[in-house]
Amino acid sequence: MNGPRPRRRAVLKGLAAAGIVVVAPAVGFAGWVWVDSGRSNTGTLAFRNRLRIPPLLDATTDADGRRRFRLELRTGSTEFLPGTRTATWGANGSYLGPTLRARRGDRVAVDVTNRLPETTSIHWHGMHLPARMDGGPHQPIARDATWQPYWTVDQPAATLWYHPHLHQVTAPHVYRGVAGMFLVDDPATDDLPLPKRYGVDDVPLIVQDKKIADDGTLDESKMTFGGLTVTGLLGDKILVNGTYDPRFEVTTELVRLRLLNASNARIYHVGFADDREFALIAMDAGLLGAPERVGRLPLSPGERAEIVVRFAPGDDVVLKSFPPPLRANVAYERLAGGDDEHDLVKFVAVDPLRPSPALPAVLTSTPAPPPTTGEEFRLTMGDFTFNGRTMEMDRLDRVVGAGTVERWDVVNGQSIPHNFHVHGASFHVLDVDGGAPPAHLRGVKDTVYVAPGSTVGLAVSFLPHSDPRSPYMFHCHLLAHEDSGMMGQFVTVSDADRPLVRGDRLPLTHAHGN
Prior knowledge:
Layout: H1 8-22, H2 28-36, E1 49-50, E2 60-61, E3 67-78, E4 86-91, E5 100-103, E6 107-114, E7 123-125, E8 146-147, E9 150-152, E10 158-163, H3 170-175, E11 180-185, H4 187-190, E12 202-210, E13 237-240, E14 243-244, E15 246-252, E16 254-261, E17 268-272, E18 278-283, E19 286-294, E20 297-299, E21 304-310, E22 316-321, H5 330-335, E23 342-354, E24 377-381, E25 398-401, E26 405-412, E27 418-422, E28 425-432, E29 444-445, E30 447-450, E31 455-462, E32 472-475, H6 479-483, E33 487-493
Parallel strand pairs: 1-15, 3-6, 5-11, 12-16, 15-23, 24-26, 25-33
Antiparallel strand pairs: 2-3, 3-4, 6-8, 6-9, 7-10, 10-11, 12-13, 13-14, 16-21, 17-20, 17-22, 18-19, 18-21, 22-23, 26-31, 27-30, 27-32, 28-29, 28-31, 32-33
């Protein structure tokens, strides 16, 4: 596969040595490490650019009655910083991609044509669909080829997203700009008095950090572990929906913000500069049972959240990321962005504001986490490994009963931050280090932060699709970790198909495009 693999053990030894000197950053190399690892932007923005809203992609109805979307992945150039242009990748444009939207019960298909200079893939992050339509590393799209997945949308309303997922090059492909939202609606949510006007009071916020040189060059020098980093590349320029230095004009009393951490490695701690509270109404896989009042919200890469914020006429307030609670040691905390603080986007409210209906006290029925029906599984995160092993495309790490629920305990045995994402499933967080999960982890999720030295217990609900040949992935969603091999794979099978699984090896029969 493309590119050399990082030297994992050598890198960690080097970082450990750096950590020793970083603890007392006095002079010379230690002082440089400390200063170089600070990437805050607070107080540097003028909020001069109107926040771009990704357009909704129109679908056609094909001969089979499916709603068909068309995405073309292409290269381009984008003006992020005034007066300079940056070479970027995008879908149907030069950077990022349009928002796809479908309803529960829709039969959908997507034509994904790759006009990029190299093979890539498109994964539907959080979507419930068969493994061969998932868009992971087993569904590559060669240059100038078109991949045509199709499926029936069968899950509650949620904020999902799409991005490349080719083994060992996910980080650069996402970083260059191929990403977008995929929104799912359902009748139950339609009936709720929530803000629903896309781009007006229902606003997507795709948050990313970049390193951009003065000449506009997109710096990829710490994409993997060639520099002093423990999580991968961290940038000091923040883009929201591909907009640098953004502001948004508020015209309604309540605004629903769909937050997506689409960064490679940065972990955000979202809140407002004036410390106002807001209502958390949904996490990765759908609505909470009731709104939760919070003032800070941590989001690791790949996580999503929906919040509703109340504004008053004339409000002028900044949505920020405060230093995130990574729970790492002092050296790794600094190198992983734990001291960083960022202004994200300014919200400016007009006078008068259009009235909004009050938030409902109940959003959806929330049954307790389902009882586990399968075996328990323990995953220990190590030296960019799971259970001591790095990813192999033909190795099967687990066989799961289709439609079952298993308890998975994910253990971060390292001193550096990780998170965990599973395809082909969603989960309830049962406990964190044996205790009840905090409010922001009580919804249904597919991605979760796993702090250094901690254990997160999950009730993982697997999809009913049975396929002994096509695997789903689980991995750390800090993309440099994923590309370094911190990923495994499993199949879901019915009782009838289980005998077709032969040992722990998969037949590699995928083709590049179709």
